[in-house]
Amino acid sequence: MAHGTSLQYEPVAEIGGGAYGTVYKARDTESGQFVALKSVRVQTDQNGLPISTVREVALLKRLEQFDHPNVVRLMDVCATQRSDQETKVTLVFEHVDQDLKTYLEKAPAAGLSPGRIKDLMRQLMCGLAFLHSNRVMHRDLKPENILVTSQGQVKLADFGLARIYSCHMALTPVVVTLWYRPPEVLLQSSYATPVDIWSTGCIFAEMFRRKPLFCGESEVDQLGKILQVIGLPPEDEWPTDVTLSRKHFPSLLPRPITDFVPEINEQGAQLLLKMLTFDPLKRISAMNALEHAYFQDEETLT
Amino acid sequence: MSNVQLSTSAMERLVARRTFPLYRRTTVCRNLFGPVDHEELQTEMKSKLREISERDQQRWNFNFEANAPLDGVYEWEEVSVEKTPVFYQDSVQNGRTIVPETPVKKRPSLDSVLPESPDNMDVLERLAVPESSSTPCPVEVNQENRTDKLNSGKPAHRQCGRQKKTTTTDNNTHITDFFVKRKRSADKKTSEMNACHLSKSPISLEQTPRKRIR
């Protein structure tokens, strides 16, 4: 495929492994398509790559075969052994110019139209429903890893990678945002696909507000901020296997969500509440969310 | 109670088999394909890996090893991270400082280098396998990384890399070391596998595929 004779290219210096600050991006001169490289360094032992990494990559490759419109294309995975202890795994992704964070920042002063928000949300939910039906959860959904193409197409990114590099993230001083984390994760209870619905709920609200809904500074603070909005759940909804007790929090009553997201319409508010449900088992699923009345009546896209 | 008894005796049999693999199993095991030339295997794997790397390099006209673009269909450019979504940034600065529990790797002794090569080299081979998770790893199903409290400040290296600790703790691994250890940790699949690879006896070679079937 790529054996053509030399065309023009940008000569660049070797930035060396680990250099960050730059990203390699390329244009396929045949198709005009853009790709970008993302490298992940994986510690290896005498058995090679950790089996979890291998499994994860295999999964990503398998998902790729579905060619889902709301998931970022993974074009290739290239592994190079750097040393006995380290393998560099380079993922070749399609390149999309902006993520939802920038998209929201760049939105006109008046904000996004309700129709635009609905369209973004529907695409987001489609992508999620696809991942979840393939037993993949994102676990760290936030505006930064939701890509939005210039045509307004939503593409989920960064899912499944968590297992590949979470160990590194945990050990590097990178601050991981808590703002989109659901109660069960903050409480370190068991969790599954509903985590992504919670995060999507936060993002849904943020599309209207254009600032995050819950900006906690620590796990406890984050949970406190959440409970100030959704209220303290009944005792039986509080997970039993956690160290942080329910008594730790004041008994708060739920406040109307429209206090925090005034522009949302009634159906939107209903859906949002179903997404921001404390109990993950009672939280709406991506599949059911797509069936929700909010998505049924069309608004004109602007 | 009978259940328990049964499983204990089964366990004993297992342990016995492991302790005296040669004596107990000679009649059952067959060495179907002759002894493995580990050196040759290693060389083959290396050349295969190189082949794959070259193919990658050609496909993308990018030297992944040197991290440098080459001439070709793809027009590479280096863009600053501010101009590109955060997602594309390399996620790891450098793991080197980390490692405490990811076994600070010992240089394998000659003993272990050869037999381990099959596992060592098959990075890409393993990637090519459509789904190797037919043996589900209990930690993987959706609830993994629970201990991985990213913000708690507690380093969560337990989740990193191999879940099972390498049985090898010293450089001079002798096969007998394994037998002793394996008696204690009869449940560790990895150690079983390692032991299989480590053993140069053709007998245990036959065990490998069988273990994998589970």
Automatic annotation (TrEMBL), chain A:
ATP binds at K38. It comes from the Eukaryota. It catalyses: L-threonyl-[protein] + ATP = O-phospho-L-threonyl-[protein] + ADP + H(+); L-seryl-[protein] + ATP = O-phospho-L-seryl-[protein] + ADP + H(+). One of its GO terms (molecular function) is ATP binding. InterPro entries: CDK, Kinase-like_dom_sf, Prot_kinase_dom, Protein_kinase_ATP_BS, Ser/Thr_kinase_AS. SUPFAM superfamilies: Protein kinase-like (PK-like). Keywords: ATP-binding, Cell cycle, Cell division, Cytoplasm, Kinase, Nucleotide-binding, Phosphoprotein, Serine/threonine-protein kinase, Transferase. Its EC number is 2.7.11.22. This is Cyclin-dependent kinase 4. It comes from Eleginops maclovinus (Patagonian blennie).
TrEMBL record, chain B:
Belongs to the CDI family. Residues 147-170, 184-214 are annotated as: Disordered. InterPro entries: CDI_dom (IPR003175), CDI_dom_sf (IPR044898). Gene3D superfamilies: p27. It is found in: Nucleus. Keywords: Cell cycle, Nucleus, Protein kinase inhibitor. The keyword Cell cycle applies. Residues 31-79 form the Cyclin-dependent kinase inhibitor domain. Pfam families: CDI. One of its GO terms (molecular function) is cyclin-dependent protein serine/threonine kinase inhibitor activity. It comes from Eleginops maclovinus. One of its GO terms (biological process) is negative regulation of mitotic cell cycle. One of its GO terms (cellular component) is nucleus. Its main location: nucleus. Residues 155-165 have a biased composition (Basic residues). This is Cyclin-dependent kinase inhibitor domain-containing protein. It comes from the Eukaryota.
